[in-house]
Design a protein that fits this description.
1 helix, 8 strands, 115 residues, elongated, four-stranded antiparallel sheet
């Protein structure tokens, strides 16, 4: 899962947590790759723990995060795993930005994506 720990909005720095029932936080290390796409700004790097932050540009309309883990690098995984999360039509942090993309049963402004 990829969970936003804060409201996802333009011009904010948001903390995210990645998790998987077969892995510990320390397993999200340099063997795991993370891609972040905030429209005109993109990043691809390796992870260094399960919690990470993203500074979302003021002009970003969408945010996409993808984490990949190759089973050849993890003894506890039988298959490769990929987690994706996407937030669309970002706002500037107004009340409307906190409710779009909400998942029933989760607090508004937080979206989870399953691995």
């Amino acid at each position: 899962m990829i969970t936003a720990n804060d409201a996802v909005a333009q011009g904010t720095t948001v903390s995210f947590t990645a998790s998987n029932p077969d892995l510990t936080c320390s397993d999200f290390d340099n063997r795991a790759t993370i891609k972040i796409d905030a429209d005109k700004w993109k990043s691809e790097t390796t992870m260094s723990g399960c919690t990470f932050t993203v500074s979302i540009p003021w002009d970003a309309n969408d945010l996409k995060i993808e984490i990949k883990m190759d089973s050849d690098l993890y003894a506890q995984l039988s298959d490769d795993i990929k987690g994706k999360a996407e937030w669309k039509d970002l706002d500037t942090g107004s009340a409307n930005a906190l409710t779009w993309g909400a998942v029933p049963g989760l607090p508004a402004g937080r979206v989870r994506a399953l691995f």
